[in-house]
Structures are given as structure tokens and as C-alpha cells.
Recover the amino acids of this structure.
């Protein structure tokens, strides 16, 4: 069956969303988020796109982007292939990471532009990953006017900085591109250690190794379900990342 042709924006601006293949986690730790942002900045002058907002969620990505000298499809292949090559080498895995085709919707007005920026920035709060927009490290909200990756001049030609930040924090029930399985809240090391101690009397890697295999798997599954990352769980328990990944 042929794919549905994408709607073309008269402004060349699109709200784009990527997700991990088979609901794969895209970002396990800070370095992963930073690598993706580095690639967005690296390929920006090559592909000629402009970015008006972004939010990197653990298992999906939102971008508000304007197509430049080359198609967004080609630009995303550049970024995606570079990230997946790096990610697979880091986590000793093979194969695809992103779902085959990104989703997109056109942005045809200033009103839609402002609303989608707000929607993107509010994603982590609505998903329960943080309480305030400024608490989330991996969106463009906090340093919106100074982040070199963001072409904020277009926005500030239309609205004052004060009004922009006020609008961003206004409650919204707008419905744009999203996924139906928001990531669970990420737990801290202290929270993960408390689970290990309270339920398994496991105070560290040595105690973990003494557990029966069935209890090891049960503990690892519980840490995953509670929002622990692969690297975090591996570091706290001594289990290999490969072992933990198989339990997802």
C-alpha cells in the first residue's frame, strides 16, 4: 500500500514528531539528549532548516521546524542515521531506532505557530515528568531567547518576550501531534536505591549478585517499570545493559 502524501505547508513550517521503533526508549541518559541536540545544530547550516521549538522526551521528539535548502526528509535521514550509528555503538545494539516515518502537520498561521510552541514546551509537564516548564532540561523553553539552535527572532517579531513567556505557561487543551503512551516519570538514584532496599534488602551490587535469578529479574523489571534508565539500573545493580534490555 502506498504512503499518504504529506500535506505541504505554505509557510514551509511543520510540527514534526519522531518516536522510537516498537516504543523503544530513545534517550537513556543526559549524554544521549545532548548528542541529538548536537546533531540538530551540526546539520542545521548544511540542510538550511530553522527550528522554532523542540522537546526531547524519553521516547519521542517534538520539533517545530521550517524546511530549508533541502527537504526535511533528507535532513532527518542525516540526523537520524548519525544518531543511530552513535547510539548503537554506545549501547552495543544493532538495527533501527526510530519508527520508519515521522509524523508532521503544517503550520499556516501566527496563531498556530504560538500554540504549537506552547504545546511542545508543555509536553513534559502534561506527561508528569516535571512540575514546571523551566524544570525540564531538554526543551527549548528555558533559554528560548539565547539558545543558538533556536531561531527565536521570528517569534519575537510577533510577540514581546514577556508576553511570550506568559503565554507559554497558560493552561492549554490544544491537541496536536502526540503519542498515546507518554513515558513514565524518571526516578532518581535515591528513589531507585529505596526500592532495592525496601523490597529486596539489596544495598548495592554485591547484594544484587547474591539474589536468586528470579528475584534479580523481578527487581530489574520493577526498576524499569518505575522509570529507571538502562544505564542507571546497570550502575546501581551491576547487571549488564543487555540483560536489562531483554526484560523490557
Amino acid at each position: 500500500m502506498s504512503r499518504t502524501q504529506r500535506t505541504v505547508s505554505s509557510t514551509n513550517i511543520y510540527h514534526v514528531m519522531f518516536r522510537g521503533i516498537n516504543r523503544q526508549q530513545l534517550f537513556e541518559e543526559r549524554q544521549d539528549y545532548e548528542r541529538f541536540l548536537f546533531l540538530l545544530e551540526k546539520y542545521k547550516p548544511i540542510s538550511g532548516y530553522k527550528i522554532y521549538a523542540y522537546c526531547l522526551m524519553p521516547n519521542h521528539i517534538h520539533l517545530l521546524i521550517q524546511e530549508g535548502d533541502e527537504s526535511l526528509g533528507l535532513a532527518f535521514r542525516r540526523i537520524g542515521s548519525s544518531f543511530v550509528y552513535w547510539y548503537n555503538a554506545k549501547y552495543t545494539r544493532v538495527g533501527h531506532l526510530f519508527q520508519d516515518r515521522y509524523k508532521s502537520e503544517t503550520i499556516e498561521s501566527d496563531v498556530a505557530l504560538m500554540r504549537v510552541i506552547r504545546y511542545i514546551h508543555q509536553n513534559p509537564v502534561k506527561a508528569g515528568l516535571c512540575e514546571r516548564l523551566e524544570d525540564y532540561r531538554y526543551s527549548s523553553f528555558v533559554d528560548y531567547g539565547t539558545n543558538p539552535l533556536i531561531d527565536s527572532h521570528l517569534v519575537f517579531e510577533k510577540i514581546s518576550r514577556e508576553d511570550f513567556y506568559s503565554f507559554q505557561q497558560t493552561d492549554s487543551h490544544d491537541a496536536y501531534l502526540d503519542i498515546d503512551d507518554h513515558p513514565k516519570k524518571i526516578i532518581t538514584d535515591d528513589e531507585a536505591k529505596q526500592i532495592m532496599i525496601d523490597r529486596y534488602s539489596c544495598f548495592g551490587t554485591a547484594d544484587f549478585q547474591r539474589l536468586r535469578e528470579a528475584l534479580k529479574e523481578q527487581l530489574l523489571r520493577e526498576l524499569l517499570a518505575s522509570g529507571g534508565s538502562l544505564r542507571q539500573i546497570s550502575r546501581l545493580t551491576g547487571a549488564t545493559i543487555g540483560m536489562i534490555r531483554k526484560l523490557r
In short: The chain has a mean pLDDT of 86.
